[in-house]
Every structure is written in C-alpha cells, then in structure tokens.
Write a structure and sequence with these properties.
With about 290 residues, this protein is of the alpha+beta class. It has 2 domains: about 10-125, no CATH class; about 135-265, 2-Layer Sandwich (Nucleotidyltransferase, domain 5), CATH 3.30.420. Helix content is about 30%, strand content about 20%. It has 8 helices and 11 strands. A hairpin with a 4-residue loop joins strand 5 (about 170-175) and strand 6. It starts with 7 loop residues before the first helix and ends with a helix. Bound molecules: zinc ion.
Length: about 290
C-alpha cells in the first residue's frame, strides 16, 4: 500500500518511521518470508518477539535479528538512517562523500564513513571470476599521495630530470564492460607495464573480446594475445564512434569522489544513463 520513494526527500520521509523502515528491511532480506539464518537450518518455523524485534527459531532455538549476517550487523544505526543511505548511494551517479551523506542523514561524518564502507561492501559483485565480454574498456588512474620533496639527493626533485609526477600515488587499473548497467573491476597494481597488466586482462576478459584503450604502448600488444583492440589517442580526440574509454573514465571520476583510502580495491556496478537498482536481497544477505 505504501508507495516506494522516488526522490531523496521522499526516501528520508518514508524511512523516518521506524516500524515502516524495519518492515521494509525484513521484506528486503526475506522476500519469501522470514527464515532462520543459521547455517544449515533455514527453518521457516519462527516466532517473532515483537517487543525486542527479533525472532526465535523453533527448530534450532536460536534467536536472530534482521541485521544478523548482513552489512547492518553490529551497528546500532537504525534502518531510518541505513535505508536512505543505501538509497542515496544507489541513486547518485557521481558518488557520495561521507561529508555529503552526514549532512543528508544528520549523522556524524565518522558514522557516515562507516556506513559508506559497509554499503560499498554490499555493492560488490559476488562473482569476481566472471569474465567480461562484448565491448570492454581498460584504463589506469592514479589516486592519493602528494608530491613530496626530495629526501635523498636527486629523488623527487621538480627539476624535470628527476621529477616523478606520480610519486606517492597508487596506481589503480580498471576494466569496464559496457552495458546497462556497465560493470567495472578495479585493482591496485604496482605499475602499468605489459607484464603487470596483461595477466589481469586475461583473467578478467573473455578471449576474442573487443577492447578499447588509450594510446599507452603496452595495450597495442593486445591482438597478440587474442583480443580485438582499438585505441583512442587522447592527444588527438576522445571519441571516435565506438572507440572511446568514457565508461571507465566516468567510473574513475565517481571513484575519486567517493574514495577514502588509496588502498581500496573495489568493484561496483555503475549505471549508464541513469540510476540503477543496486541493492538486492542477495547483496544484503552477503
Ligand atoms: Zn534455526
């Protein structure tokens, strides 16, 4: 009977009622009825203890809450905050910082940071072994760090000769499969040499797939390992028909807005052309 929210304001209002937020979370977790989450039990014979908002399993006698075994476990944060937070993260194309989330929810930045971290965990794709196919883009980016002053003679000096613009930064390599939604795998790598990049491409991209990249030299060896390759020279243009790296570039800008640690290795679904529903019962239970 309740209309699910379509705007942020509606989402905050909708979930501000604790009972409604709780009922929503229960429905999200157990769309086919509450079942005991204990490994190997799964019994549907459960008794709800209303005053404490928990269930007791008739078969194994264990008590459980809707939060147990989910990203919400061990947190005193109520669903009135969690659900709008998920809603915000799943619907913003450009990413959300912990400061923005803190303001929107009326929680501390530290709490918002914790929530973002947990929600991103849940948004990860559970099958990293899945290989991308169709049209794939590869690219690298540098995150974190700062230009540092020389500590040893000749190291890190801004004198052209010994100047390392990426010093102190972490290189992140990304592979994107175009589509709706598009998919991205991102990983921290030590450098962007062929010997470093290629094993990850071969592990994550189906043989014979079309791969698009920038003009970075090592990528030109992709046809020799069984891929169809086309590259765009960013000194000349950014897009030539299908040949572009816009999907992965969009991901980087989203990634950089939300990133909190340069060591984060994460993958998420990125909606192309609008918001995508990212939260499923499976991802919450994971
Ligand atoms: Zn049980």
């Amino acid at each position: 009977m309740d209309k699910t929210p379509t705007t942020l304001l509606e989402a905050v209002t909708y979930f501000s009622d604790p009972d409604r937020a709780f009922a929503y979370a229960v429905k999200l977790r157990w769309p086919n009825g509450v079942a005991c989450p204990r490994m190997g039990c799964g019994s549907a014979a459960v008794i709800f203890i209303k005053t404490r908002k928990l269930w007791r399993c008739k078969d194994c006698s264990r008590q459980f809450t809707v939060k147990v075994g989910t990203i919400f476990e061990d947190s005193p944060i109520s669903f009135c905050k969690w659900l709008p937070a998920i809603w915000i993260l799943a619907n913003t194309k450009n990413g959300t910082s912990s400061h923005e989330l803190a303001r929107a929810l009326g929680v501390t930045q530290k709490t918002a940071w914790f929530m973002l971290h947990r929600i991103r965990e849940a948004m990860r794709d559970g099958q990293p072994a899945e290989q991308f196919k169709g049209e794939v883009e590869v690219d690298e980016t540098y995150v974190g760090g700062r230009k540092r002053r020389a500590t040893k003679r000749g190291e890190g000096r801004d004198n052209r000769k010994g100047y390392y613009p990426f010093e102190g930064k972490t290189m992140v390599f990304g592979i994107a499969e175009r589509g709706r939604p598009s998919k991205v795998k991102a990983m921290v790598l030590p450098d962007r040499k062929r010997a470093t990049l290629f094993p990850h491409i071969r592990a994550n991209v189906f043989p014979g797939t079309s791969i698009y990249s920038d003009a970075w030299g090592p990528y030109r060896g992709l046809p020799s390992v069984g891929y169809v390759h086309a590259f765009i020279d960013h000194w000349v243009t950014y897009c030539e028909g299908r040949v572009h790296t816009n999907t992965i570039e969009n991901f980087w800008s989203c990634f950089k807005r939300t990133i909190v640690s340069p060591a984060v290795v994460y993958e998420r679904w990125l909606g192309e052309g609008g918001a995508q529903p990212l939260i499923t019962a499976e991802s919450l239970a994971g």
